[in-house]
Design a protein that fits this description.
There is one protein chain. This protein is mainly α. The strands form 2 sheets. Strands 1-2 form a two-stranded antiparallel ribbon. The chain has a two-stranded antiparallel sheet with strand order 3-4. It has 14 helices and 4 strands.
Length: 420
């Protein structure tokens, strides 16, 4: 709303009003405001949750220091959601289709997570929302995002079709399509001519291949939203792990949004130009500020847990952000932490069922899953294929090492834009 106020004031040459035209200026303000809201409101919410005795129910896994977390206030994801939405509404262009999508994503996934936490905390049902209901909600968001990108006339791209070297400056000159158009094209990492059109998989359908390409795109969107949100949910098992990892991913996505929405930067990096996507840098700034602000209370030992209210929201935002930028194939790299955490659970369950059926006794690959718990168990306490490390690692050390890996993956994600 402030964006439109200052846009109005700029018409009357009010000094300083023109600054709000700059995405970088509004992004900086959004970061500061979201950080302030998270720290200020977070403290008050924690005291409220403590008074109401809204605490986390801990399942005893025998891990060191685990039961000390019992009773820690949960549903702190409300802090993150509020810290994202308020600065976005104040400082972003609310007519921008990508901003609208991100607001819907935040509220949609926040509601699913909140309902799940409400059932756990107030209904005293440890299982929370039925898994099928949760997946239906995630699929619903995937449909909304996929169909919006398909139907909205504002969700268009200008594809980088060719490049040549200037004989004088020896610089690469990128040529774009003359007109922005709707496209199912996405970015493939590591390859020079790296644009992949989903419709190319349906050449045999002739004139109907583009429609089939959009159907595939919507299905991919549904899968990614579901997978990444659940991955973030699984990662939220140690103090600050999911929050810090998400902040790192948010910085990377903010950079991708800024360069994708600027034709000069997009041309320099030889990536597709997405008109209007630069506005998402403002949203990314609120996301970064909210997660860092939440870390003030969520780092070890945590004063509050985000619960599913926060973890599902963070995962959904990251997934939709990448899809809107046509960078969804970078997610396995950028969200490598979420991916490995999810795979560890899938592998563990699959191997246990297979060995139990074949040998009559279930066996494990890891000492415990999700993977971060594997490092909390000393060697020899549980029969598993992988026993390293021999000594249990302190929780804070595990978290910081995962952050470092996340930083490396984020750097690799950005490098892929130029190493082609």
């Amino acid at each position: 709303m402030l964006y439109y106020l200052f846009e109005f004031l700029d018409k009357y040459d009010v000094p300083g009003a023109g600054m709000f035209h700059y995405i970088s200026f509004r992004a900086a303000l959004a970061f500061i405001l979201s950080l302030f809201i998270a720290t200020w409101f977070g403290n008050r919410l924690i005291h409220y949750l403590q008074r109401k005795q809204i605490g986390e129910t801990i399942r005893n896994l025998g891990l060191e220091g685990q039961m000390s977390k019992k009773g820690t206030p949960t549903m702190g994801g409300v802090i993150i959601i509020l810290s994202i939405l308020v600065p976005t509404i104040l400082l972003a262009d609310l007519k921008n289709v990508y901003i609208i999508l991100m607001i819907i994503t935040t509220m949609w996934m926040g509601c699913i997570g909140f309902c799940d936490d409400y059932i756990k905390v107030f209904k005293h049902n440890k299982e929370g929302m039925h898994g099928r209901t949760k997946v239906i909600g995630q699929v619903g968001l995937g449909l909304i995002v996929g169909l919006t990108l398909y139907l909205s006339p504002d969700a268009v791209i200008r594809e980088n079709v060719s490049s040549s070297t200037d004989p004088v400056t020896h610089e690469e000159v990128v040529k774009y399509e003359q007109k922005a158009q709707k496209s199912t094209t996405t970015t493939i990492p590591f390859f020079k001519n790296n644009n992949l059109d989903y419709a190319d998989a349906f050449d045999f359908l002739g004139e109907h291949k583009q429609a089939a390409g959009w159907i595939l795109f919507v299905l991919v969107t549904i899968f990614i939203v579901t997978a990444v949100s659940n991955g973030a949910n699984l990662t939220d098992g140690l103090d600050g792990l999911a929050t810090g990892s998400s902040a790192i991913q948010g910085v990377t996505l903010g950079i991708l949004a800024y360069v994708s929405g600027n034709v000069n930067y997009a041309g320099y990096l030889n990536i597709m130009y997405i008109p209007g996507s630069g506005e998402m840098a403002v949203f990314a700034a609120t996301f970064i500020g909210a997660t860092i602000g939440f870390l003030w209370y969520n780092t070890f030992p945590a004063q509050v847990f985000m619960g599913d209210t926060g973890s599902l929201t963070l995962g959904g935002i990251i997934a939709v952000f990448a899809i809107a930028l046509h960078k969804e194939l970078l997610i396995p790299i950028l969200c490598g932490i979420f991916l490995v955490e999810s795979l560890s659970v899938i592998m563990q369950v699959g191997y246990f069922k297979f060995t139990k059926k074949r040998y009559g006794e279930g066996k494990r690959i890891f000492k415990m899953t999700p993977l971060h718990h594997h490092f909390q168990e000393p060697a020899g306490t549980v029969k598993a294929l992988f026993q390293l490390p021999k000594q249990a690692l302190p929780e804070s050390k595990i978290v910081i090492r995962f952050w470092i890996i996340g930083l490396i993956l984020a750097a690799v994600t950005l490098i892929t834009l130029k190493m082609r």
